[in-house]
């Protein structure tokens, strides 16, 4: 008896060391996420009771994925559910014989082994039946060729988490063309398992890992599932509840999602929560990509304090920026509407020094962002223009045109690139549509760019191309094209005759931007009357009266002219025909050596009087970083000369920097001819 008892206790001690007393065992889910079930309060007494009641309940001994049921008829114990521990046992753990006085437990060693192995075999079969094969989204996207294939696999053997299926479908969709993607999405919506998958994602939303939740939401939005559906709104609400689980990776995914989605109540709440989270964790962000993604998503209306904090973080990480990070920084700052000059200057240097090999799309994005931020960097613009000019032959004409349109927005005139473009546009004008032709004319007329003797040939080619599409061109495009030709002193008769048709004029004055159209029609009329137009000299269009051109006081120039010429020898704010305005008018002799008294009785048309127009010009009237006048100023100067004026341009920003004495000397060199300056000094001394 003592030997049998000792043998049983030894076996019992071996078993007790392998069955911990805490929350240890795990019930694996059959398919989707089920509660993890573990059992506590195990001790030797419970184990002995289990042996005594072997016929009343099943015991699964210490094998992988073992299910342990409490003895008795009260079913599975569900209390004490907590952490999970699983054991793998490859052989029988109790080699010694279990011998008791009770005849229920008298068995030979071979019978005990046979019983254990039989139960292990049954357990393996049951586990294989009940435990699904885990499928990750990458493997699923590699095995399937369509969205419906993924849904078919889901309907046959769904697994947890269901977010893998949506992620796999989005990965597959990215490989498709737009037409194929549209067709596959329609099949996806009509698939019988699609609604089941959506329901399953909503059920799992609160228990799946937070990154899986975000990946599934991102895939759902990218797949084009409407934002106002219950699925999307439910996931947004769950993300709001669990936003504190965000780590850096999740923050990046969440930022991407918010960039994609349209504003709505749940999106706005989630955005506000993300801003608070970023405000707290901005200094913990380690990766530049995550930082830029977050900056892009916080919105233009984010608090200025948060924007500056992100700017400081970016400046701190500037040494870690790659060339690609610097290229993307422009769009990032434009997305958050924050003009950080220091950051933009540093990124501009990196972009300019590594410009070769930069994709054209990135160059366009940089210039668009600079336009939105009103940021001007001459070195950056010159670097981009020189790079495109160097590699001009590899770019399509329309791409270069788009670049020139952006340069025109800044008033930047890349001479070398525009010269190359004139040659290629003249050779390939047949491949350009009406919109492209109108844009080309607008760029070249606005920047007042002429290329040696080829300009007339270039304008002729443009006019011929537009004439061929005359019956397809809209009234507004026709007006824009003719106005650009007039700025450049070129008058294509077919286009002008078509523009002056009564129905076209009526259409322009009753639809679209009427005020802008009326102003352009006045410009065309002025050019036809004043320039060397071959026709319509006596044109009298019934156009609405334009408001007077704005006048800007120039007190410093006026004071300098008074010191230089004396009172009553010049006139201010003079308005001329065709809605022209000049700041100051001076009347001199033909040699511009003597200023004549200014009075209303003077005969303006006299041959011995030279009228001088002093125009005070801002920087915006010139091309960027040059004194080359833009198109409108060049046309105004041309027309003033035709009306008998000698035109003097006075740069406002230069005069403002000068002392009064220097300003007087500066104006004297401008007004008097170089040959007449000594005589002018004598005349001024005699009048003093």
UniProtKB/TrEMBL annotation:
GO process terms (BP): mitochondrial RNA processing; regulation of mitochondrial mRNA stability
SMART domains the UniProt entry points to: RAP
Coiled coil: none
GO MF entry, a single one: RNA binding
InterPro entries tied to this protein: FAST_kinase, FAST_Leu-rich, RAP
Keywords linked to the UniProt accession: Mitochondrion
Cellular localization per UniProt: Mitochondrion
Protein name: RAP domain-containing protein
Species per Swiss-Prot/TrEMBL record: Muntiacus reevesi (Reeves' muntjac)
């Amino acid at each position: 008896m003592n030997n049998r008892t000792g043998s049983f206790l030894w076996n019992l001690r071996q078993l007790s060391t392998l069955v911990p007393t805490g929350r240890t065992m795990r019930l694996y889910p059959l398919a989707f996420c089920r509660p993890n079930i573990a059992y506590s309060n195990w001790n030797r007494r419970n184990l002995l009771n289990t042996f005594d009641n072997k016929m009343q309940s099943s015991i699964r001994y210490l094998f992988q994925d073992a299910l342990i049921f409490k003895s008795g008829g009260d079913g599975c114990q569900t209390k004490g559910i907590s952490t999970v521990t699983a054991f793998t046992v490859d052989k029988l753990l109790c080699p010694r014989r279990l011998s008791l006085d009770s005849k229920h437990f008298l068995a030979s060693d071979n019978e005990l082994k046979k019983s254990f192995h039989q139960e292990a075999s049954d357990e393996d079969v049951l586990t294989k039946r009940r435990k699904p094969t885990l499928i990750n989204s990458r493997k699923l996207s590699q095995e399937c060729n369509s969205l419906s294939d993924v849904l078919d696999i889901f309907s046959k053997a769904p697994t947890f988490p269901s977010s893998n299926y949506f992620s796999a479908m989005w990965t597959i969709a990215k490989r498709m063309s737009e037409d194929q993607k549209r067709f596959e999405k329609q099949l996806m919506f009509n698939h019988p398992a699609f609604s089941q998958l959506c329901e399953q994602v909503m059920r799992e939303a609160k228990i799946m890992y937070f990154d899986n939740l975000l990946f599934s939401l991102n895939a759902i939005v990218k797949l084009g599932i409407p934002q106002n559906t219950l699925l999307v709104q439910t996931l947004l609400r769950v993300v709001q509840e669990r936003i504190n689980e965000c780590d850096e990776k999740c923050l990046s995914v969440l930022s991407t999602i918010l960039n994609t989605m349209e504003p709505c109540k749940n999106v706005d709440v989630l955005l506000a929560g993300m801003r608070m989270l970023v405000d707290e964790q901005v200094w913990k962000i380690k990766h530049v990509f995550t930082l830029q993604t977050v900056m892009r998503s916080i919105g233009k209306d984010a608090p200025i304090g948060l924007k500056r904090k992100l700017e400081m973080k970016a400046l701190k990480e500037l040494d870690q920026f790659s060339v690609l990070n610097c290229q993307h920084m422009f769009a990032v700052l434009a997305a958050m509407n924050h003009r950080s000059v220091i950051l933009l200057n540093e990124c501009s240097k990196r972009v300019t020094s590594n410009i070769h090999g930069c994709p054209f799309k990135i160059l366009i994005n940089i210039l668009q962002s600079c336009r939105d931020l009103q940021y001007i960097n001459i070195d950056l613009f010159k670097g981009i223009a020189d790079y495109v000019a160097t590699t001009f032959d590899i770019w399509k004409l329309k791409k270069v045109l788009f670049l020139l349109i952006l340069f025109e927005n800044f008033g930047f005139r890349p001479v070398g690139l525009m010269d190359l473009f004139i040659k290629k546009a003249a050779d390939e004008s047949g491949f350009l549509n009406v919109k492209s032709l109108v844009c080309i004319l607008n760029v070249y007329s606005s920047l007042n760019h002429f290329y040696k003797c080829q300009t007339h040939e270039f304008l002729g080619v443009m006019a011929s191309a537009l004439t061929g599409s005359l019956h397809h061109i809209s009234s507004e495009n026709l007006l824009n094209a003719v106005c650009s030709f007039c700025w450049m002193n070129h008058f294509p008769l077919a286009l002008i005759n078509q523009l002056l048709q009564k129905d076209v004029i009526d259409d322009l004055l009753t639809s679209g931007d009427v005020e802008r159209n009326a102003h352009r029609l006045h410009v065309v009329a002025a050019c036809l009357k004043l320039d060397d137009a071959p026709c319509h000299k006596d044109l009298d269009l019934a156009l609405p009266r334009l408001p007077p051109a704005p006048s800007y006081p120039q007190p410093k120039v006026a004071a300098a002219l008074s010191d230089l010429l004396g009172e009553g020898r010049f006139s201010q704010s003079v308005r001329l025909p065709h809605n022209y305005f000049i700041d100051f008018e001076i009347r001199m002799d033909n040699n511009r050596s003597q200023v004549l008294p200014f009075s209303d009785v003077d005969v303006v048309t006299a041959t011995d009087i030279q009228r001088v127009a002093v125009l005070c010009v801002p920087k915006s009237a010139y091309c960027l970083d040059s004194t080359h006048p833009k198109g409108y100023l060049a046309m105004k100067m041309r027309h003033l000369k035709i009306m008998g004026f000698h035109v003097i341009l006075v740069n406002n920003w230069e005069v403002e920097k000068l002392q009064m004495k220097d300003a007087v000397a500066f104006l004297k060199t401008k007004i008097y001819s170089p040959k007449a300056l000594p005589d002018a000094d004598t005349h001024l001394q005699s009048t003093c």
